């Protein structure tokens, strides 16, 4: 019976050693997992920063594009107004020219009436 107790004590010691090694391995794996999770969190933080930068750039580009569109619209409106002014000026020029040409024969006739 003493041998059996001795054997059980030896097996218990071996099992305790094995359990201790497994616990150490689990602790090491847990430490590694925590480090990897920290690295992943850092990468996610950098991705969030980059995403924020991209969002800001897109917002600025959108504002610039909107401003360009407003400027082009204003330029087109101004060009249309200038076109109308030119058309009106051309009409007035035609009227002036026709008026001037209409008086030339009268002037010539008055020169020859002596």
From TrEMBL:
This is Methyl-accepting chemotaxis protein. It comes from Streptomyces fuscichromogenes.
């Amino acid at each position: 019976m003493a041998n059996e107790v001795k054997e059980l004590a030896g097996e218990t010691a071996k099992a305790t050693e094995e359990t201790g090694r497994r616990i150490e391995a689990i602790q090491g794996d847990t430490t590694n997992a925590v480090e990897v999770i920290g690295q992943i969190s850092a990468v996610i933080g950098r991705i969030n920063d980059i995403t924020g930068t991209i969002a800001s750039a897109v917002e600025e580009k959108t504002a610039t594009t909107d401003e360009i569109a407003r400027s082009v619209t204003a330029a087109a409106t101004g060009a249309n107004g200038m076109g109308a002014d030119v058309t009106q000026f051309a009409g007035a020029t035609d009227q002036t020219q026709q008026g001037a040409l209409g008086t030339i024969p009268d002037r010539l006739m008055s020169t020859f009436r002596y």
